[in-house]
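re: ur question from earlier - yeah i can do the single chain one, its not a big deal. heres the input i used so u can compare w yours
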Amino acid sequence: MKDAVASDAIQIEAPFAELQSAIADRRLEGPLLDQVPMQRYGVFIVRQQFDHDYILALAATFEAMLASGEIKRSPQHKTEVRFHPDHPFAKIIDNSQFLELANQFFGGEVALDFMRIIKKDAVDRDPVFLHQDSGYQVGRFDAYSFFIPLTECGPQNGGLAFYPGTHNFGHLGDVGGIAPVLPEAYPMFQPTVDVGDVLIMHAGTWHFSPPNNSGRSRVYLEVNIRAADDPAAKQPLGCTEKREWILKMSVSDLFESSREQRIKALYRQISELKQQLADLVHANR
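and the output i got, formated as tokens:
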């Protein structure tokens, strides 16, 4: 293993004043997608891209399915709710307003990687550590998540927060929590988004979410896209399959002992040990 860099040799530089100005001048948001700040800063909000009634209907469906137990949070994830391709949320990729926006990436040759819901509420309030998504994904570095709020999402209810431009640092060496290494001068972007908006993030952008202190539901529908010729893309969106190289599998399929697999195994062992202890206590009463 390589030795750690001496602390006095660590260097992190970025155009701090420019980043602060971009946030203050609201150049990271607008009624239309602007690819210049999107590509430079790795995050952009398109305001009121989606029809309100359409998104509110998805939100109502989500709340009903969550209450009935038809869908639920993944046991090894703090915020993730997975759903089947036949559920109403999956139809977002057929929505004309979604496709109009997605086709502004990769020259219109776009494909789906994955979809999920990420939520915090009165039950699930915990923060999510600082990280980048690219290490959790199979495929090329350039991929984008469309976070479509089904509720108002902001600082008080655990909304996403970003360090703009950090995707320019490239792939990191692990998918764990990033240490507090950024200089104090590095500005944070912690926006409030509402029904109709869409928050777009490059997979390499460093981001986190604080705890939900309000207990009000904070729900995003996340749709991740990548180039249609990316070997890891799952489904072309309005374009023809032309690839020679295809690697369509999950990280769990690809690795025998990934960090995530080891963590899940540890959770299983902890659960089994707790059950054994409970059984032992019960037997000795």
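Residues 255-285 form one domain. not sure if urs matches, ping me
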